[in-house]
Each structure stands twice: as structure tokens, then as C-alpha cells.
Amino acid sequence: MLRSAAIGAAFLALTGPAFAATFTFETAAPVGDDKVVANGTVFLCDGTVCKGDMNRKKASVRDCKKIAKKAGEIISFGNADSQLDAEEIEECKATARK
Q: How far is it, in rounded angstroms, from Cα 54 to Cα 36?
């Protein structure tokens, strides 16, 4: 009985809902490639809009800065539940790849 409970718990841990959410960022200028790899995430891009799944629930300035170093000036960043505000975007822009 204990063994089956342990196997069941392990199965649930592997198949349970992940904390991943689809994040979108938009850049001021088109991204040169069709993808940006930043912060362990591959973002697929179409022009100035890029999307990728991150193991996060909330958007953070820290993540935005890491992306900006690779993609350039970010004008919006977030997911369906969490967006950076104007002040946070300005902080992110300071580290953008030139």
C-alpha cells in the first residue's frame, strides 16, 4: 500500500500542472532572428512580438532585463495575468542591447 502511494505521488508530481505560463514581449524594433533565447527560454518571434513559455507566474523586471540584453528595447512584457507597468518597462529599457 505504501509503495503504491509513493508511485502515485511521483506520477502526480510529474504530470501535475506546471508553473509555466506563456509570456509575450514586444520590442521597439523588429527582432533580427525568428527566435530569442534568454533566461533559459526560447521565444519565437514574428516581427516585434515574441512568445515563449517560462516557469513563472508573474512578470518581473529581472526577467525583462535578461531578455532586453538579447532582444533590444522592450516596450511591453508579461503574460495573461501579469504585465510590467510603465515604470518597470523604463527600468528594463536601461539594459537593452544597443
A: 13
